[in-house]
Design a protein that fits this description.
By secondary structure, this protein is mostly helical. It has one domain. Helix content is about 75%, strand content about 0%. Helix 1 runs antiparallel to helix 3 and helix 3 crosses helix 7. The chain is elongated, with a radius of gyration of 18 Å.
Length: about 160
């Protein structure tokens, strides 16, 4: 456990940041009055998400590897973090959907039918629901975590001087 203490710390910070982001989205109306902008602006979440990975791997490099980190070490650290975040993603999604913003699904269902994104209420309800979002967010978290880890580990690896 001691070997992955930083990964645990940063995974928990990532989860808290995710919940705070959802509170922010709700407060600015992206889950209600400005739901038409949600599918565009929610992608800005990538910025703090990448920064968390960057700060996590920088700290890992500095504290656990004395400033010398190989790509493999960074990759392993980022993948551990990704695994931890992914394990908690269904719970995180449940908190978002039932506590932070329970009005999101009814609002996005109505909006998607209104603009013709979905042809019927039933079709929209089949897509916008907690079970589907738990599955989508878990898969998305895993994929994006791996991709982010690959990129950040590549840029943070210690360059070998010849």
């Amino acid at each position: 456990m001691e070997k992955i203490r930083l990964e645990i710390k940063w995974a928990m910070l990532f989860i808290v940041m995710t919940l705070l982001w959802m509170v922010l989205e709700k407060l600015v109306g992206l889950h209600s009055t400005h739901i038409d902008l949600h599918m565009y602006l929610t992608n800005l979440f990538a910025i703090p998400a990448i920064l968390v990975y960057l700060f996590a791997l920088k700290e890992k490099k500095k504290k656990d590897f004395n400033g010398q980190m190989t790509f493999k070490q960074g990759l392993f650290s980022g993948l551990i973090m990704t695994l931890l975040i992914t394990i908690f993603t269904p719970l995180t999604q449940w908190v978002i959907s039932t506590i932070i913003t329970p009005e999101y699904f009814p609002n996005v269902i109505a909006h998607s039918v209104e603009i013709g994104y979905h042809s019927s209420l039933e079709e929209a309800q089949a897509y916008f629901n907690l079970k589907n979002y738990m599955i989508q967010s878990t898969i998305g978290t895993l994929i994006m975590g791996v991709v982010t880890t690959l990129i950040v580990a590549f840029f943070l690896k210690t360059k070998v001087r010849t």
